[in-house]
């Protein structure tokens, strides 16, 4: 069935304002609403924080998967959108702001810049951001395309942490050079309020959300490349092939529709959720090879993880700060959070799998993003535009 | 005299005879209404506390409306069981009851009427932050006779609806999900006022509690003790106003110090 699924199509980037997040299939929406009501009614105030919401129980089926394979369709979409603009000597807009969905662990835009040998503007250190009168000289002149992959690395949500981004934006406003600026959607929402980035830079573009057909084709393509021929993906609940189509060529199951809605159409979030839901049978005898399957991978139902809505503001403040900044060390977290009493909470979030740690910096994990966003939305936090 | 004599039997016939009144049904209606009101009174605030923030005010506001509707329904249901309903009967009974209750429970009845008026005028709703007299707090419940406020110091204050008639009521959010918070600073001149305004604005912009949809205003005026600066902005959740103002104050003081300015206090200024 994977072999019959057509390869993914390349879609150019779309304006951020036009983003339409995939809708939930009716049955899944009802099921989720019922689950949420049940959680609401049975949740105990005495419950240990996120004790049963551990996310770290997955098996990495595609752990050997190379990064370029994961990014390839997205890099192709960047190429399609930016290729002709990058070679135009007198473009309408010199600057192309790209608002990327959060939890981009692969640093996609840096990857794209590297592939095309574009100049990348390295961000300053976080300590340098807090100097009250930044003396850093910003010389953006030069030839070719300049890429600023992470605008969120140019500020800190601190009373002294906005000086440099203001300076950078002022310089960019008068720039006559091809420049691609990447910014995560949470940082963009913050910067719109803090420094009017939406008034200084042109209208940003973003990836078109991955809806059901697009997601199914994309994941089928990855599975074709990464698994043995004849591998089938079956729902552990009923053994049905999740790639199976009916006579009209429509998917028989709502799996990918649900996955698209849960991931809000964010490719890497969907990929992490998908990877987390794949299990290998521990015993060969458990494998159902009745339909000439060489190998069966079992797809467990997508679980609904939840964060406390208003019970633990401290945890939500940490997650919000990490989403805005991309990643922060423990010391930097302390600087951007309002209350100094958070010391233990980031350990709890890390242990539970909501946040990851790399090179001493914490970041929100893509697989936990739907739960994190729901938690922040429930508690009334300001959200991103994606 | 002849007319008076003829009206007495009519007045007596307004009320149904004891044997015709179904006391069991009346008791069941009263009990059912009380149970329904109690259930809604307990359930909706409980759900509001745990559910999505955007539904909280809506759920809390539904409680008094439901109670008013249920009570009105019960009264409309019971009256015909006890009284033969005609316009004349209604006027006679309303007059008699009004006089009796007016003397005996003047303030209580006035509070009840104020409670009903408040349902329509909405000077407060459950979940609003109001100041009545010197009491400031969140409206926790809206009763027929009184409302309860929870202050920032976690005290519960019961305020009779009667206050509606003769008190100024300041409603900080008026049904919205946020309210303006103000952090005050008094600074001794001379200092760079423009840089100070910009620095305090950044203090508000970088607060984790900030609501992005509302404006930030740095208001400056000259006072006797020094320059008075008000940092006015909105938190995304009004129950966090204490945290928000504390955050603005602490970091605002840091910003003032960093700019080399000095805060003044009233006793020092007086001296």
Automatic annotation (TrEMBL), chain A:
Protein name per UniProt: Uncharacterized protein
Species assigned in the record: Kushneria marisflavi
Taxonomic lineage: Bacteria, Pseudomonadati, Pseudomonadota, Gammaproteobacteria, Oceanospirillales
Automatic annotation (TrEMBL), chain B:
Protein known as: Small-conductance mechanosensitive channel
Keyword terms of this UniProt record: Cell inner membrane, Cell membrane, Ion channel, Ion transport, Membrane, Transmembrane, Transmembrane helix, Transport
Topology with respect to the bilayer: Multi-pass membrane protein
GO CC annotation terms, alphabetical: plasma membrane
Subunit field text: Homoheptamer.
Pfam families: MS_channel_2nd
Main localization, broad class: membrane
UniProt source species: Kushneria marisflavi
Family to which the UniProt record says this protein belongs: Belongs to the MscS (TC 1.A.23) family.
GO MF term list: mechanosensitive monoatomic ion channel activity
InterPro entries for this protein: LSM_dom_sf (IPR010920), MscS_archaea/bacteria_type (IPR045275), MscS_beta-dom_sf (IPR023408), MscS_channel_2nd (IPR006685)
Cell compartments where the protein resides: Cell inner membrane; Membrane
Segments passing through the bilayer: 21-37, 57-79, 86-105
Function: Mechanosensitive channel that participates in the regulation of osmotic pressure changes within the cell, opening in response to stretch forces in the membrane lipid bilayer, without the need for other proteins. Contributes to normal resistance to hypoosmotic shock. Forms an ion channel of 1.0 nanosiemens conductance with a slight preference for anions.
Gene3D superfamilies: 1.10.287.1260, 2.30.30.60
